[in-house]
Amino acid sequence: MNKTAVVTGAGSGVGRAVALKLARDGWRVAIVGRRAEPLQDTHRQAGEARSRVLVFPCNIGNADAVSRLGTEVLAQFGSVEVVVNAAGTNVPRRALEVLSPGDYRELIDTNLNGAYYVTQAFLPNMRAQKSGTIVHVVSDAGKQASPKAGPAYVMSKFGLAGLTQSINAEERQNGVRACAIFPGDIDTPLLDKRPNPPPAEARTRMLRAEDVAECVLLAISLPAHAVVEELIIRPR
C-alpha cells in the first residue's frame, strides 16, 4: 500500500487525532484546514514524525481552492491512498427558529460540499491506481435528527452518509471503498459552539477524538477486498 493520506479538519479534534496517528505509523499526511496556525500546531505535535506531515491551509467549501489543493498534494505525493474527511462545524444559533441563511450555507459548505469537493479531487487518482479508501467522519446526527444538533448540521450529515453510499455503489468496481463513521458525543472544541456547552463533568463521559481515530485506522487497514461501510461508535 502507498501510505499517503489527506486529512481535513486536521487543526483540531478528530482530524488532528487521525493525522497524528497516521504520521506516527509511517504515513505521509497532507493536513488540511481553514487556518494555518492550528495546522502548524498539529505539525508540531507530530514530533519525530513531523517530516511526514505537510501543511495545506484551504477553505474546503471553495471548489476552486480544493481543486488547487488536489493538484498540489498529488504533485508532492504522486498518489493518494486514503482521504479522511473529518472537517465539520456548527453554530450556536442552530434551531430552525433562529438559523440564518448565512450560517446554513456555511454548515452545508463545510460539512457536506467540502467533503464532496475533496473526494472529487482525489477520486480520479484512486481510480487510476485501482485502490483507495475514503473515510467520512459523520455523526450520529446523520442517523437521527435531534434538537441539540440543529437542522443544517443534521442535513449535512445525512448528505455525507449518502455520499459514502454512492462511492461504494459506483466505485467499488474501481477498487475504491468508503466508510462512514457515526460517533456519538465527542469531547472536542466543537462542543463550545453549542447554545449551552456541556460542563466539564459531562465531557468526561464522552468519546475522545482518539477513539474515533482508531475507527478510522480500522477502516483503512482492512484487506483490500473488505469494506466497513458504516461504523457507529458511542460512549459506553
Structure description:
- This protein has a 7-stranded parallel beta sheet with strand order 3-2-1-4-5-6-7, with helices on both faces.
- It has helices at residues 13-24, 36-45, 63-77, 101-129, 151-171, 200-203, 209-221, and strands at residues 4-8, 28-33, 53-57, 82-85, 132-137, 176-183, 230-233.
- The chain has one domain (4-233): 3-Layer(aba) Sandwich (Rossmann fold), CATH 3.40.50.
- It is built from 7 helices and 7 strands.
- Helix 4 runs parallel beside helix 5 (151-171).
- The chain is of the alpha/beta class.
- The protein is globular, with a radius of gyration of 17 Å.
- The mean pLDDT is 96.
- Helix content is 44%, strand content 16%.
Mean pLDDT across residues: 96
Tell me the series of helices and strands, N- to C-terminal. Answer: EHEHEHEHEHEHHE
Q: Name the CATH superfamily classification.
A: NAD(P)-binding Rossmann-like Domain
Give the radius of gyration: 17 Å
Give the neighbour order of strands across the main sheet: 3-2-1-4-5-6-7
Helix content estimate: 40-55%
How much of the sequence lies in strands comes to 15-25%
Shape: globular
Alpha-beta content class: alpha/beta
Largest sheet: 7 strands, parallel
What gap, in angstroms, lies between the N and C termini? 34 Å
Number of helices: 7
Total strands: the figure is: 7
The CATH topology comes to: Rossmann fold
Number of domains: 1
Unreliable spans are: none
CATH architecture group name: 3-Layer(aba) Sandwich
